[in-house]
Amino acid sequence: MTRVSVLIPTFRRPESFIRAARSVFAQVGVENVELVAVDNSPEGSAIATFRWLDARAPIPFRWAHEPRPGVAHARNAALRFSRGDLVAWLDDDEEAAPGWLAALIAQRRATGAQSVFGPVHAQAPDADMGRAFFERLYSRTGPRNSGPCQAFGIGNSLQPRAMFDEPEPFAASANEKGGEDDLLFSSWAEAGAQFAWAAEAVVTEHVDAKRTRLAHGLKRAFAYGQGPSETAWAEHRYASLARHMAIGAGQACVYGASALVVAAGSGSRALLLLDRAARGAGKVLWFWEQRFYGETLAQAA
Q1: ∠15-16-22 over CA atoms, to 5°?
Q2: Cross-strand bridge partners of residue 34
Q3: What is the distance between the alpha carbons of residues 244 and 225, in angstroms, rounded to a whole number?
Q4: pLDDT per 10-residue tile (average), the chain, 301 residues
Q5: What is the CA angle 188-293-271, rounded to 5?
Q6: Which pLDDT does position 221 carry in this prediction?
Q7: What is the dihedral of CA 12, 18, 24, 26, to 10 degrees?
């Protein structure tokens, strides 16, 4: 029987991690599932939580401490400790619907895709302003129906463990800024991998108050915009890079100006326009490295 490993890297979010883990324990329509968690805080702050949960887990629960900070290190460690034929990824701020894992597996069987992705519905109840903006920023809607798709982020996804054939498949260069999954999936696509969308494999992302600050939201949107240009540069597709930069320049100018015009009448609408302007600017300034993981460590120091 096929074994599935659900991998959750975590960083200083004990309550949120427990919620994510319990949603894995509550999965229906699947058997032979294990949970693998990796604590990526240098001090090992989640170890006590892991031990507490281990005594209560209804399925095999394996955990490890990866003290080297960085999202790529955490994902690589999770893979090393996994034993499944398939691996599914859940972020530590996400909560899976009961049929989530079964839907991912069913779509993989139906399509034969090497990677299957599902929707992420963000909830940001603590947003002081622009709740719709932040929920849109952190959500992933994707196609309306299940079927072939382009690659998305690795949170809420499923792959054969054998696809990760390198000792360190996630690039350490992405440790602080993220995008380690974009680089990997881009290399898979070049090699002919197929991707699919499972519309029923829904997870909810719980956005905490720290991530609903305007500066953080726009920085994140800027980083999202950088993705296509960074990938084009890494793959030496310079014509594509030039096209992304030209489109981004137009978006930054048009949406930025529009945001100023509508700000007085609709703050929420202005935020959405600023989001698009920031993504456009990211396409142009793709070489301006953003830091998210390192930023968290500095704030905690």
Answers
A1: 90
A2: 5
A3: 9
A4: 94 95 97 97 94 96 94 94 97 97 97 96 82 85 88 92 90 70 85 95 93 74 75 77 80 63 54 76 74 46 33
A5: 90
A6: 76
A7: -170
Give bridge partners of residue 94 from the DSSP assignment: 205
Question: Which residues have a Cβ under 8 Å from the Cβ of 170 and sit 6 or more positions away?
Answer: 71, 72, 73, 75, 76, 180, 181, 183, 184
Q: Give strand pairing partners of 5.
A: 34, 87
C-alpha 122/C-alpha 130 separation (Å) is: 13
Please tell me the distance from the alpha carbon of residue 66 to that of residue 76, in angstroms, as a whole number: 9
Cβ atoms within 10 A of the Cβ of 58, count?
11
Cα–Cα nearest to 78, from 60, 86, 94, 66 = 66
Which pair of tokens denotes residue 226? 């950088």
- The letter for the amino acid at 50 is F
Supply 190's token pair: 């070049």
CA atoms within 13 A on the CB side of 87: 21
Reduced to 3 states (helix: H, G, I; strand: E, B; else coil), residue 155 is coil
Q: What is the CATH number of domain 4-212?
A: 3.90.550.10
Buried b (16+ CB within 10 A) or exposed e, 18-39: bbbbebbeebeebeebbbbbbb
Q: Which two tokens stand for residue 212?
A: 């609903």
Q: How far apart are CA 67 and CA 106, in angstroms?
A: 35
Q: In this structure, is the dihedral angle defined by the CA atoms of residues 65, 289, 170 and 97, taken in order, positive or negative?
A: positive
C-alpha dihedral sign at 7, 157, 30, 163: negative
Distance separating alpha carbons of residues 132 and 269, to the nearest angstrom:
9
Residue 207 contacts by C-beta under 8 Å, 6 or more apart in sequence? 93, 122, 123, 124, 126, 127, 134, 135, 138
The kind and range of the H/E element at 204 are strand 203-206
